[in-house]
Amino acid sequence: MRGRASGPSPLPEAAGRAWRTLGAAFVLLVFVPPLLLLVAGSLTEPGLPPPPTPRLVPDPVSTTGYQQAVELGGLLRASLNSVLVAVVAVPLSVLVASLAGFALARLAPRTTAVVVAASLVALMVPATALLVPRFAIFRLLGLTDTLVPLIAPALLGTSPLYVLVYYLAFRALPADLYDACLVADLSPTRTWWRVALPLVRPVTAGLTALTFVLTWSNFLDPLVYVYDRDLFTLPLALRSLSVLDPTNFPVFLAGAVLATAPALVVFVLAQRRFLHHDDPTGRH
Q: Would you say residue 280 has pLDDT above 50?
């Protein structure tokens, strides 16, 4: 009896697509209605009393709230400051975290276990517990009231979590791949940059989007380190805008839309590789 060549079953792939579709539908159901209400509120005419019930289509539709948000809140300068911090901090954080994760994946098992345990302990330390010593260091260096304290954590990969995620990704790559790099006389740096890093693009896309969102929405660090209004980032500018006239909600909601849009754009650009997993060996 002639045997038939058996290929991969389509059932797991179909089940994966179904779960991804279900997850996407859940995300849309949870996040899209608040975003629609946010946009609708920002298009309401400023100065009018709030409607008794939320409206998806305000009457009349007005963009005055956006004009007042930019003029009164200084959102243009704050946006430029936030862009400057993100453009420097996000790529630097991803590069440092990926390099540290690659080094961790290539260490001896005992050393790796010690470093991973130390990283997990560091993750348990609340970020607020580090505010006082960090502030003391930056003040001693004369770097307070500048954007440097907002960028400096990127030199350490921002968070041990990013290093651990890259460590797991690089560890999942076939050992024969690293052996082939040794045979080809590739240095560890070239192996990381030319071979390993391109194979974990989904991880890089996901962490880039996550780092951008956390950097873009960072409120606590600018509040602690920045005092000059010309150096305010968007979260600080939105706070200032909210206290100007708390009852004039369309202006504040317009500022919130302007602050939320870049994060949504970055997530949409990264979602394909963030949501769809690629096999480290190149198979899909």
A: no
Query: Contact 215/86 with Cβ under 8 angstroms?
Result: yes
- By the 8 A CB rule, do 225 and 233 touch? no
Q: Region 96-123: what's the mean pLDDT?
A: 91
CB 220 within 8 A of CB 274: no
Give percent of the chain with pLDDT exceeding 90.
39
d(CA 116, CA 102): 13
* Phi, psi (rounded to 5 degrees) for 44: -80, 145
Q: How confident is the model at residue 279 (pLDDT cuts 50, 70, 90)?
A: very low
Whole-angstrom Cα distance, residue 234 to residue 262? 11
Task: Determine the residue type at 9.
Answer: S
- In Å, how far from its chain's centre is CA 178? 30
CB atoms < 10 A from the CB of 98, how many? 26
If we measure between CA atoms, which residue out of 127, 135, 150 comes closest to residue 233?
Answer: 150
Omega within 30 of 0 (cis) for the link into 60 = yes
pTM over 0.85: no
Domain boundaries, the chain: 37-275
Return the CATH number of the domain spanning residue range 37-275: 1.10.3720.10
- 128: three-class secondary structure by DSSP: helix
269 vs 66: CA distance, rounded Å:
25
- The confidence score (pLDDT) of residue 249 equals 82
